[in-house]
Amino acid sequence: MTTPDPKPTADPAAEGVGLVETRSVQLFARDDPLRLAGGARLDEVDVAYETYGHLNETADNAIYICHALTGDAHAAGLHVGEARPGWWDNLIGPGRAIDTDRWFVVSSNLLGGCQGTTGPSSTNPETGEPFGLDFPLLDMSDFVTVHRRLGEHLGVRHWHAVVGGSLGGMQVLEWELTHPEDMDRAVLIASSSRLTAQNIAFSAVGRQAIMRDENFQNGRFVDERTPDVGLSIARMMAHITYMSEDAFTEKFGRSHQYGAPSRGFGIDFAVESYLDHQGETFLTRFDALSYLYLTRVMDYFDPFSRPDALARLQQSPVSNLIISFDTDWRFSTAQSRRIMRTLESARIPVTFREIQSPWGHDSFLLPIEPYHATIRAFLEYDGGGQATHE
Fold it and tell me: Would you call 361 a catalytic residue per the annotation?
C-alpha cells in the first residue's frame, strides 16, 4: 500500500518558478567578521541563496524562507539538468500560496549548513583545512544575523513576512523576538519554542550514531572516509519521527519487501527497505558535521526563558500565524499552542490553526489544501490583527 498524495493546492497546469540558480555571496570578511552569540567569530562567511519573483520599487513585497534541519536554499523551481524541484515547490510559485507573481521570495542555506553556506566542513582560512570540530558552536540568533545581512545585500531591510517550518519556525521566532521591526508578519509551522526531553533524546542518539562511527575520527575525516554508517542511521531514526503511525501503516503495513520473509537479519519488510533508502540517499546531500551542529542549536533554543524575551516584540508587534498538524508527534500541537499562549499573554496578534493530516511532521512539506489556503489568506490579508483560534 502507498500513502495517497494530498490534494494539490496549485493549478496542476502551473509550471512553478521554472529554472532557478543557487547563487553565493560572501557576507562577512576578515575586515568585517561575523561575531557569534557565543563570543567566537568567523572571518569569512559565504551564503548560498535563491530568489523567486521580483522586488517591487518600494521593496515592501519581500518574504524570507527559513528552512528546516536538512533543507537548503533550493526551495522552489528546478536546477538545470535536475528533475528534483525545490523542497517547498508546492508552496512557492506563480498562483501558489506564496505567489511569486506578487511576492519577492528569498531562501537561503543557513549558517552551519552544507549546501553552499559556511559550515563545519568549510575550509578554515587560518589553517587551509576543514574546520571540523574547531567550528564554533552556534546559536539560533547567529542564523538570524546572517539572514538579516543577506536581506541588506539584496536591498531588503523590511520583510512583509518571514516564514519557516520546524527548525525554520524556530528561526522565525528568534527573529521576531530580537528584531521585530524587520517584519510585518511571522509564519511558524510545525515548530517549537523549546524542544521536549524526548526531542532532545532523539537528537542525542542521532549524534552518538555519527560520533561513534569508526570513521568519525573526532571530526577529522581521513582519506575521504566519512561516518556514513552513523549518519545514515541518524537519518533513519529521525525519519521515523517525521511520520505518524497511521502514515506508516497506510504506506507499508507489514508488507514484505521480497515476497516470503527470509527470517534473518536482513531487510524483510517494506518499511525496512524504505528507511534503508532514506539513509543511503541522505549521504549524497548532507554532511555529518552539519547534522551535529544544527541539531545542537535546536537543543539549546529556549527564547522565552530569557529575561524580557517579549519586550522588543511588545514595542513593535508582529502579526503571527501559527500552524500545527494533528498527527505531528515530533513537534506537537501542544508545542505550537505554547508559542501562541505566550505571545497572546503579551498581547501580540496571533492566528492559530491546527490542520488535520495523516502524515505527521512531514505534513508541513506537503500540498494540503487547508494548510496552503491558510498561509495564502494570512499573507494577503490587509485588515486588522485580531487573534483567532481553530
Answer: yes
